[in-house]
Specification:
single chain, mainly alpha, two-stranded antiparallel sheet, about 75% helix, disordered N terminus
């Protein structure tokens, strides 16, 4: 489910990048809710922070990325909890599948009802893992618009790269892919061994991120890489607490 959501979001990002509006500079006069309340504020925040750090737009993007990650931290914790809980409940899910092996509509409906009862009993929401992705993708699109439609950002350099162009040495796209894999691996923590969809997503996500990062401005790769690194650090921060909760859940399912 989550891999499909990510794929749809990335495809949407690809098509949004081709919108004619991307060619129009973002200013205070730009009309529309998207421009006025999302793209323009991000653009101005990056410019403001860059000016504080000697016109360094790379540092500004890193700071904004960390700020966004701090804001969505509670959602990330919930995602990790539910992913690990889903892994803990996998044996029970398999038992239910064995009880309702038929593929007819009635049996499948009964299976879904029993699974929903199981999730409700253990307070697990199988769809909550999609929420951080759904929230991050509009932010990623907004970053893309802010970068490409703000001359000060798109024409500025950071380290070896131009922020408005793809990384010429492919370093950041590779880092983005590796950190995406590491982050997903840490969140799943073995749950993918019992779930083919999770196992597939573990590899599909990094590959898709690398492909898109190779073709999009380096500033997006920087945003994604720093965001992943921060997420990995967050995961270690809450790891012990979540593992204790998962262990408790495992005991109750035995």
């Amino acid at each position: 489910m989550r891999s499909r959501v990510l794929a749809l979001c990335l495809v949407a990002l690809f098509f949004l990048s081709g919108c004619t509006e991307v060619q129009e500079p973002i200013t205070r006069e730009s009309e529309g809710l998207w421009n006025e309340y999302v793209v323009y504020p991000i653009s101005q925040t990056i410019i403001y922070l860059a000016q504080l750090f000697g016109n360094n737009f790379g540092i500004a993007i890193i700071i904004v990325t960390v700020m966004i990650r701090v804001l969505i931290f509670p959602l990330m914790v919930k995602q990790i909890r539910n992913t690990k809980a889903m892994g803990a409940l996998q044996p029970e899910i398999e038992k239910l599948k064995e009880q309702y092996p038929d593929k007819d509509a009635h049996s499948q409906q009964q299976l879904q009802e029993k699974m929903m009862e199981l999730f409700s009993h253990y307070n697990v929401n199988p769809l909550s893992g999609c929420l951080p992705i759904l929230i991050q993708m509009p932010i990623l699109v907004a970053f893309f618009h802010a970068i490409t439609r703000t001359k000060e950002i798109s024409e500025n350099n950071f380290l070896w790269m131009n922020l408005g162009s793809p990384d010429p040495y492919y370093f950041l796209p590779i880092i983005a892919g590796i950190t995406t894999y590491m982050g997903q691996k840490l969140i799943m923590a073995g749950a993918e061994n019992d779930n083919p969809q999770m196992a597939m997503m573990l590899w599909v996500m990094p590959v898709m991120i690398v492909i898109f990062a190779l073709n999009f401005p380096a500033a997006l790769s920087l945003y994604w890489s720093i965001g992943n690194i921060f997420m990995i650090a967050q995961s270690f921060f809450v790891k012990d607490h979540i593992e204790k909760r998962t262990a408790t859940l495992l005991k109750t399912t035995e």
